[in-house]
Amino acid sequence: MNSSGATTSSATSGPSDTVAPRRNSKRPKYSKFTQQELPACKPILTPGWVITAFTLIGIIFIPIGVASLLASRDVVEIVYQYETECIPPNARNNKLGYIQDPTTNKNCIATLTVPKRMEAPVYVYYQLDNFYQNHRRYVKSRSDTQLRSPTNENDTSACDPEDNTANGSPIVPCGLIAWSLFNDTYAFSRNNTTLNVNSKGIAWKSDRNAKFGSDVFPKNFQNGALIGGAKLDPRKPLSEQENLIVWMRTAALPTFRKLYGRIQDDLEANEKLSVQIANNYNTYSFGGKKKLVLSTTSWLGGKNDFLGIAYITVGGLCFFLATVFFVVYLFKPRPLGDPSYLSWNRNPAGH
Amino acid sequence: MRRCIYINDSDLTLDLYCDNRISNRKYTLLNFLPKNLWEQFSRFMNKYFLLIACLQLWPLITPVNPASTWGPLIFIFAVSATKEAWDDYNRYLSDKQANEKEVWVVKQGTRTRVQAQNIRVGNIVWLRENDEVPCDLVLIGTSDPQGVCFVETAALDGETDLKTRVIPSACAGITSELLHRIKGVIECPYPDKDIRRFDANIRLFPPFIENDLCPLTINNTLLQSCYLRNTEWACGVAVYTGNETKLGMSRGIPEPKLTAVDAMIDKLTGAIFLFQLVVVIVLGIAGNVWKDTEARKKWYVQYPNESPWYEFVVIPLRFELLCSIMIPISIKVSLDLVKSLYAKFIDWDEEMYDPDSGTHAHATNTGISEDLGQVEYILTDKTGTLTENKMIFRRCCINGVYYGNETGDALKDVELLRAVGCNCPEVIKFLTIMAVCNTVVPLKSKNGEVCYKAQSQDEEALVLAAGRLHMVLVDKTGNMLQVKFNALTLQYEILDTLEFTSDRKRMSVVVKDCQSGKIILLLKGADEAILPCACSGQQIRTFVEAVEQYSQLGLRTLCLAWRELTQDEYHEWSLLFKEASGTLVDREWKIAEVCQRLERDLEILGITAIEDRLQDGVPETIDILRRAGINFWMLTGDKQNTAIQIALSCNFISPEPKGQLLLIHGKTEEEVSRSLERVLLTMRITTSEPKDVAFVVDGWALEMTLKHHREAFTQLALLSRTAICCRVTPSQKAQLVELLKRCDYRTLAIGDGGNDVRMIQMADIGVGISGREGQQAARAADYSIGKFRFLKRLILVHGRYSYNRTAFLSQYSFYKSLLVCFIQIFFSFISGVSGTSLFNSVSLMAYNVFYTSIPVLMNVLDKDLHEKTVMQHAQILYYCQAGRLLNPSTFAGWFGRSLFHALVVFIVTIHVYSDERSEMEELSMVALSGCIWLQAFVVTLETNSFTLLQHLAIWGNLVAFYIINFLVSTIPWAGMYTVMFRICGQPAYWVTMMLLVIVGMAPVLALKYFRYTYRSSTINILQQAERLRAPYLPLGNMESQSRTTEKEVIPMSITLPKSRNSVYEPLLSDSPSAIRRASGVSASFDVFNASPSRLSSTYSRNYKSN
B1036 pLDDT exceeds 50? Predict the structure, then answer.
């Protein structure tokens, strides 16, 4: 409180004198920011701007769409669905029994025709449908620390129920993901000569180098009562078990392809490929499909028309919108910012 | 029980009562953490987040790392705890300063200097002039021989006039040396907060014993935080100390105010919470069903056959955690941050800086700026709020001669100066009345200048004017009064003061001219009260004309008169007067009757005309705010006529043909009720017509209506856009605010004096004018401004922008949280409804706290319309008042948008990243970056004006997203090691992003364009008008500028004439205390506000009679 009260005024001097000295000190500092006066541009949606924007989107999108579609069409893909084919006709009414019977011979031979010339490298994938690698119980059941270094061998707490063997020693690699490793194998031959499938370098380089230790060896793996999927060679370090590394990169969708290997030779059109499939993996209990896929690749990836179609559709729609807006603008022009549209100018009584 | 205080006896009272340590702190070092946490957890949102965070500690159900909730939660708690701690530390510092101030206290018979905190109850405290009173004291001695001292109680009640305090009669005549050794006992009540009551007794011990028991009242006390003025020294016994003083007890923590926007956000949060529960229940059931039908077939999942009893809640709880991000944890912090910035913008605003008083606007309450934009009712005080409360003597008419008519200022009129110079007797008499007939207290400062303390601004104006005309009131001690006229010193003895009352409408003093020994009655008052008492021979026509002329100019007129009394006449009358003053029943009426006998056969000397100017820009401000759809109520303690006059002059009400005034009045309850019925009926009829109808009600009628016809009055309040309530008390002001608040209106109360404090605290928004009646109102208010005219900027600019920005910010916060949450929900459909989180913990946390909050925080710089446009088209405020920008339907729009965007992101991502690319980490980063891109464009589309900072925030944030994720991608043990490098290296990623942005934004843009052009809202039209026609925005435009319609070119600046309206107010006194007395509040009020003159006159009488 100022000691000279507010109603006090000097008899000889005006009140302005007493205020003068403190005026400057209390005055707020001027800056464009504090005054909210920073230079700003205020774009508004004028018809010209919007129509141009939509036209431009159309112009850009349709070529990209065409290019993507062409890229996708250039990709040659052979898909062979074999989960039924590979079961002998007499066992087809009890597929589950057939696949779970360890004594049966599960090999089958399939012949694939190359529709178009496929340039090397030709990627070999297996595709599983209706396989939930993203299920919460499944996706969490792994131990990254254990995979990285042998010192963390006992770190299996997340791996339940495939964490330890019955006598308590840790399973390496532990967890449901590793346990259910895909174990179908494919052997290709062309004109009765074996076609080499290179399965080196199919996993991410970073995974091999940093996530899977070169000094971590499988231990107690698939030794339990319940056998899930493939067994691992206990003499090979995990970093070289590339099938496992690929499998451990869980897929986000219930339908997924995983790289099996690469064929380093060109495949000519109409060539017949013979594949010997070891049909070991059980997808029959949940009605999953298994497919063998051979595919080349483009700058955009594999065969996938989605991007191309989406781009062309969006580009076309934008053109259409631009046209509609233009036509509306021509036939029903509306002056922007006309004060006569203001509600209070129309209705003098107020709102 | 009462407390007994032994004066100056440390043995007897040492430990019974607390010491004088003041503490306004909320916390101590020890209890800070628990207390603060408890307070924070009393909020619903915080409880919710704590529950979520605790649930996340259960590894079976948590989809993400618990740190993703604990991190932000702890951060948020730390921020608000730090703020609290900082505030509390500042309070501690100011307490410390007060506590360690040194004061003189008597210890063992000698005066010693101790720190204020060490004063104990019973100590004798000595104060010097201008000292602050450290605790509540009972006065026992002053430098004044009559035992009087003056205090300024502004800090206590906001009144800046000096109050007189006297020593109890028992202590009269004790010399200052003896005071050191005084002993006695004071019996007083337990501490309370009533600053107008102190019912206690004092009994002195021998040798001071005079009479047995002496009663004490509030007039014998010096209360904490008052200042001793105009008295050399005073001493008193400490009775209440520390936080037990009257001030300490009345200090309450005001209820935090909740804005309408906050309430709406809470409501929407509740709705989202319900939605979340529905989602959780549906997905939980679906998850359990899927688990039992499908998941058991999946051998690779190895569902155990027997499960624990709680198995059925696991999946619902997982979804609860997954969906918990629907309610954005960051919204509270973001809102607090932007709100404090809004408040800072108010503090910084140069255009609300008042150079006259050197004050700038200040937002005390930083949390309610949005409410300013939603104000529907403004309740305003009159004096000091609408007017300057600065009375200036302008003109006068002495003995039929007009002075000041040519120059507009009588003090510069040569004629008057010459008349003074040649000692023209009428003029001298006139000046004598101006200088003497008042209750002004002259104060001599050290350099010899004289200052005046006055309760009435009019009296001060008159005394100052007389001083300028060489009749200077120099000194007033007791009943002796010194006036200096030129070189001459004239002495007057004041015999009696006949006080102003609102019925008498005049005041007078009886003085004895010490030079001539003559007894004179000096009189001033309203013309209608004085002119009829003129002596028979005098022509009063000229005076009537003068009054008329002045009042038409809007000046406040006073009539001055004079009468010489004979000794006998005076003595005869004096006896009657004393008798009347001593009566207990109808005292006021009896005194008035006695005074009447003296105030007759007057010699009318002239008329003074005083100006109380309206503040600059008041009519324009009211006009603009009324156009903005804000209803105005004027609540004043003034007379009806005065109030109406001011209302007319400041555009409050329109003159006759356009406007209509309806009066509610009446002497009895029935009359009032009939009058109310009539007004209500008229009001209902006229609502259909475009007519400006206002009602006027006075304090008495208001009390009746509020008591008996609340319903009817409420209806009336709803119908009327304008109301004038005159002669209302502070509590009635508060009642009216409450009435309007009950009807669900947003109210703003603005005032400047202590009598407005209750209304200011009651209203949704209280605005104080830091004016001449002290800082009390400004301190109690949420916002303080220097002048009334700043109110329009406060509401239309700051309030409106704040509302718009908060509306966007809050809805956007929900939008972005929902976006991510919907993606998670969609993902659960393709992950076996098992509650897998698509996004990893780090991304989720960073998304909510970092990636999406910075661009939108920059939205505090967004301005949809230029300030000038808003001022010009104030009607635009309607959008804010009606809550058009934040309500369930706009929120539904945002909800829909987030659903749409989530669908776009999800569908595009899973189709592009299918088959061999469907790797979890990659897909999650693609979806996340899709969200980030979309939100950047959403902010861009919703921003109206781009400053450099906003561009920086929006695009810089996008760049920062990539930089951060690249950095995280280099950490080998992070889940997303090298993921970001891999996906960014693929052309497919960038093609996907482009597709996402266009598919997500093109429909939004198209819809917005369509609405903007063909279904334009008023804001859009003004934006377009501003852009296309404003010369001050030189940016080029594709749209041709030639299509400007000629209908109405909007002028871009307000060029209203700067009129300096004056106010006609034919009332004698306009000070707040006079108002209070006039409206007859309560007797206890009067005691505290007793003017120095009255007290001194009573005491002088006592002195004489002794």
Answer: no
Residue A261 structural domain:
76-296
Residues A339 and A248 in one domain: no
pLDDT of B77 reads: 82
Asked if A178 and A148 sit in the same domain, the reply is: yes
Specify whether the CB–CB gap between B520 and B564 falls below 8 A.
Answer: yes
Pairs of residues, one from chain A and one from chain B, whose beta carbons lie less than 8 Å apart: 348
* In a domain? residue A34: no
Partner B contacted by A132 (CB < 8 A): yes
Instruction: Count the neighbouring beta carbons within 10 Å of the beta carbon of residue B602.
Output: 22
Share of chain A above pLDDT 70, in %: 87
Report A:295-324 residues touching B (Cβ under 8 A).
295, 299-302, 304, 306-307, 310-311, 314, 317-318, 321
Is the pLDDT score of A296 beyond 70? yes
Higher pLDDT, B644 or A72: A72
Q: Which of A20-34, A160-174, B609-623, B924-938 has the lowest mean pLDDT?
A: A20-34
Domain count, chain A: 2
On whether both A191 and A276 belong to a single domain, the answer is: yes
**Residue B87 confidence (pLDDT):** 80
Asked if the Cβ–Cβ distance from B294 to A340 is below 8 Å, we say: no
pTM of this structure = 0.79
Same domain, A331 and A199: no
List, for residues A39-66, the tens digit of each pLDDT value: 888 888 888 889 999 999 999 999 999 9
Q: What is the pLDDT of residues B353-398, one digit of tens each?
A: 888 777 888 888 888 888 898 999 999 988 778 887 778 888 888 8
Query: Residues 855 to 894 of B: which have CB under 8 A from any A CB?
Result: 861, 863, 873, 875, 878
Which residues of B are annotated as catalytic?
A: 381
Q: Of A296, A314, A337, which one is at a domain's C-terminal end?
A: A296
Does A13 reside within a domain? Answer: no
Domain match, A220 and A248 both? yes
Does B801 reach chain A within 8 Å, measured CB to CB?
yes
Mark whether A209 and A329 lie in a shared domain.
Answer: no
Q: CB distance from A258 to chain B under 8 Å? A: yes
Q: Which residues of A touch B1048 (CB under 8 A)?
A: 339-340, 345
B987 touches chain A (CB under 8 A): yes
Helix (H, G, I), strand (E, B) or coil at B612: strand
CA–CA distance, B610 with B623 (Å, rounded to integer):
26
Q: Which residues of A touch B161 (CB under 8 A)?
A: 5, 7
Instruction: Give the N- to C-terminal CA distance of chain A in Å, as an integer.
Output: 45
Kindly state the tokens that stand for A164: 């330890």
Looking at residue B848, its pLDDT comes to: 80
How far is B594 from B501, CA to CA, in rounded Å?
14
Cα–Cα distances in Å, from B80 out to B37, B69, B324, B333? Answer: 10, 17, 22, 8
Hey, which residues 54-93 in chain B have their CB within 8 Å of chain A? 63
Within a domain: residue A11? no
Distance between first and last Cα of chain B? 37
Whether ipTM exceeds 0.85: yes
Residue A31 is assigned to a structural domain of this protein: no
A316 and A274, same domain (yes or no): no
Residue with tokens 């949060």: B269
A236 and A309 fall within a common domain: no
